[in-house]
Amino acid sequence: EVGLTFEKVGLFDQAAERYQQALSLAKELDEPMLLATGDLYLANVAWFQGNYQTAFQLLSQADKKAELANDPQLRIMVKNTRGLIYWTLNDTDKGLLHLHDAVTLSRSSNIQTELASSLNNLGLIYRQRDDHATALDYFQQAKTLDESLKSQWGLGYDHRNIGISLLALGQLEEAEAHFLKAEQISADINNVINWVKALLELGNVNKALLRPDQALGYYER
Question: What is the mean pLDDT of the segment spanning 1-15?
């Protein structure tokens, strides 16, 4: 949990160090669920740092251990991370394959938090394919779920993603409103990564609205 907290504020080396400590303890306990979690979290750090081969290796290990532990939530998280790495690598076909699997398993296991994440991730793939209407639909489904779950973390991403789709569709004022919500929510919970991205998008939408001074202010922040 300490490692996750470091990860959420963008301190990846410190996160990896804590995950390695946790994995050592998990090995002593010989606990598949904890071992799978450690591999999954280290895969995330490897992905964020651009070490894709290491990330895929760790995900394969995590998936085998999650299957041993009979833990559907971990398996969904593995599928989501795989899908997102393929998204990063611009292989949208493979990304969609893993993310649709994640949605199916989330629904069959009735794990609403993972379903919200999986829907959001599917939206990212369709956005990458320039299918902004389909992306918007998935992002709005995720937002509805995150509202019911009262997930501020999820809503910060939902609002930013909805805003990006609306910006691409030329609905600038509506997009700006969602970016403002994303910025406020992420600032409130100190989700630095999404906060910075929301400020960037506020710069982009103000530039599109021909407000260069406001755009510059957001870019500088």
Answer: 91
